[in-house]
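Entry 14. Structure prediction run on the chain below.
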Amino acid sequence: MRRVNTSLLAPLERPLLAALARVVAPRASADVCTIAGLGGAVLCCAGYALSHVTQWYALLATAGVVVHWLGDSLDGTVARLRGAARERYGFYVDHFTDTVCQVLIFVGLGLSPYVDFRVALASLVAYQGLVILVFLRTAVLGEFRLSFGGIGPTEGHALLVLQGLVITTAGPIPLGGISAYDLPVAGFGALAAFHFLRVGLREVAELRARPE
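Output returned:
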């Protein structure tokens, strides 16, 4: 399986994660990193749900996003550094928990007073479509692609952190009958849907024309 990540932030992310993994590996296993990532998603969901009380709970949600990104990004590298890499187990557990975490984060957004629940769920569906495409490509083409059009999970995490900080400092921002925070969430979903259709339809045509 060939792993491909051409996201915009990848050149900055790779050396940072490599340095962090060297610190974490002697102290924690890959499973601990995975559990930490799941805990971060739970924290994110709870923080956004509690932001009905005060916008400062959005800061808790933002911290959860950072913890989720770290746990999710480090588990594979930590396993390799500890000499405990198990390709099938790691792939299965990682992406099983990823699905749970994605649901928690998007539902959390929808439970907040800042993002319409319908917008959050529509974006979740669009993103899951792109995730399914990634798995299809992995099974059929042997390529595990983490990014499309320069956008991958790290850019999604960065967008959530930025949005959480704006919510914490600025609170609600009405925009013509909707919330301004609906726009980046809807835009992320629209981008995911676009790449799902663009890449999926193109590769259907390529596979149809290719001899088995």
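The CA atoms of residues 121 and 184 lie 14 Å apart.
Filed with the rest of this week's runs.
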